[in-house]
Amino acid sequence: MGHRIVKQPSGKYAIWSTIVDDFIATDATREEIINDYISERDTSLREEQSKKLNDIMDKLDAGEKPCGGYDHSWQHDLAWAVFIHGDHYVKELTEGLSKEDYDFINDPSSEYNTVLNKCKQERAAYEEEIQNGRG
Question: 112-134: per-residue pLDDT in tens?
Answer without folding.
Answer: 999 999 999 999 999 999 988 87
